[in-house]
Amino acid sequence: MLLFQSILLCLLAGYFFGGLSGGHITGKIYKTDVRQHGSGNLGATNVLRTLGWKAALLTFAIDVGKVIGPVLVVRYLLFPQYEAFSYENQLLVLYVAFGAVIGHNFPLALNFHGGKGVACLAATILMFDWRMAVLELIVFVVIVAITRYVSLGSIIVSLIFFIWIFIVHDATLHMALIAGAFPVSVIFMHRSNIVRLVKGTENKLGAKKN
C-alpha cells in the first residue's frame, strides 16, 4: 500500500519540474514573451505559431524532458522497495507525471499562467507504456493531418490514454482515478478550444490565428 507521504512527494516533485516552462525558456532565448502573442499560451503549439517550428521543437523537448527526468528518478531511484514497472511503481509514476502537468499548466513562478499539458501527457504516455505511445502518435498524426485541429487530436489522445490504462492494464479504482485526472485536465485546459470546435471557428494548424 502506498504511503500518503510518497504520493505527496511525487506530486510536489512533479509540480516543481513541471513549472520549468519550455515556452518561457524558449521565449527568453528568442527574446520574445510568448504570452504576449497568439493565444498567450506557453505550450508548443502557440510557440510554433509565434516563433516557428525550431522554437516549437525546443519547447516540446523541454516540456517532455521535465516529465521524463523525475519519472526516471521515481522509477529507478527514489522508491527502491518497488520493482520498476510494478503496480505501485507505475502508480507513483502517474502521480509524479500528473504533478508535472499541474506545474506546467499553473506554474507558480509565472503567476500560474502556463500551457495545456499536452507535451507532458505525451511524455507520460511514453514512460508508462511505449506501445500506447506508438498508438497515440499514429492517432494524433492522423487526426491532425485530416482535420488540422491540434486541440482535437490532443483531447482524443488524452481519452485513449485513460481507456488504455483502464482496459489493457486492468486498472484498480486508485489507478483509474489518477489516470482519469489526465484527460479531465486536458479537456479543462482546452475548454475554449472545444467551444470553437463546436462552432467551427477553431484555428487550424498552418492557418493564421483568428
Key terms for this structure?
mainly alpha
What count of helical segments does DSSP give? 10
Looking at how many chains there are and whether they match, the oligomeric state comes to: single chain
Distance between the termini: 50 Å
The overall strand count is 0
Rounded mean pLDDT score? 93
Return the string of H and E elements: HHHHHHHHHH
How would you summarize this macromolecular structure in one to three sentences?
Helix content is 71%, strand content 0%. The chain has helices at 4-18, 22-29, 44-51, 53-78, 87-105, 118-128, 130-147, 150-167, 173-189, 191-199.
Explain what the structure shows:
With 210 residues, the chain is mainly α. It has one domain (4-199). 71% of the residues lie in helices and 0% in strands. The protein is globular and about 50 Å long.
Give the topology, please.
Layout: H1 4-18, H2 22-29, H3 44-51, H4 53-78, H5 87-105, H6 118-128, H7 130-147, H8 150-167, H9 173-189, H10 191-199
